[in-house]
Amino acid sequence: MTGPPTGGTPPRARSADFLTELFRAPLDPGYAQAARRRVAGTPERAAWRRRTARLVRLVALVVIGFLLAVAYRYATAAQPQTTKAKAGLITDVRARRAAADALQKQADQLHEAVVRARDAALADGAESARLRNLEAATGLARVQGDGVVVRVSDAPAPIDPVTGKASGTNPGRVFDRDLQDIANQLWQLDAEAIAINGERLTATSTIRTAGSAILVDFRPIMAPYEVQAVGPGDLADRFSGSSTGKRFHAYVDAYKMQFSVERRTGLTLPAAVQPQLRYAQPPQSSPPPSSPAVPSASGGRR
């Protein structure tokens, strides 16, 4: 029986299992060496990366600044032209309105001259008075008398709690239908003549909205709106107690709309613009229809 060998090489130890070693050291030694070499060269590469990033940021800032400068230049260059065009339009509108007012004043003077000539030509004073009363009733003559002034204006615009600016939606704004309701109620209460901001109403007058403006017979009027009416002495009290007056008082409480009814003496309402007259034309003469034959007494025809 032989014993263990003496002297010579020691027996080889058995290595660990391959999977156990793989999970214990998953990284290949070559990766560790490459990482050590990368760390050794990090300062130079990091400095190069910092310089590159700084250069990129500088170029981006220069480009953004250039774009902002170009946009600002275009905006400031277009603003004077826009302001100049707007100022020119405003000046043109004011000039045309002044010219229209001058022509209307001249037309009123000519109308008064025609009325004086007509009254002088009429021998009958009663007939002249009747014509004047008809003109006053139709709105074609200036009238004076006691009556009422109904004043209405927009409520202050509500403030937006988020932006702190005036809101674009104003429930207390005066619309054309509001002035229509006031005028119709005054007519119903026996008003003899009505004018809105100096524009006399007739049977063919229109009150409508164009954009954000209210037009009376195609002439713009601005707030506050004053509806003047000549009529009975109790016209103010009757209007305040009417359904329209109560509704506008409710608007005051709900929307802070400005509304007032005031009795006034010695009101003077201007004449309305002369309307374009249209005359009826008789039909063209045609031969009379043939009369039917009259039967004879014997029942036959002659």
TrEMBL record:
Cite the record's Low complexity compositional bias ranges: 293-302
Q: Does the keyword Membrane apply?
A: yes
Q: What transmembrane ranges does the database entry give? A: 55-75
Q: Name one Pfam family in it.
A: DUF881
- Record keywords, A-Z: Membrane, Transmembrane, Transmembrane helix
Q: State the residue spans of region: Disordered.
A: 272-302
What is the similarity comment for this entry? Belongs to the UPF0749 family.
Q: What's this protein's name? A: DUF881 domain-containing protein
Organism annotation: Planosporangium thailandense
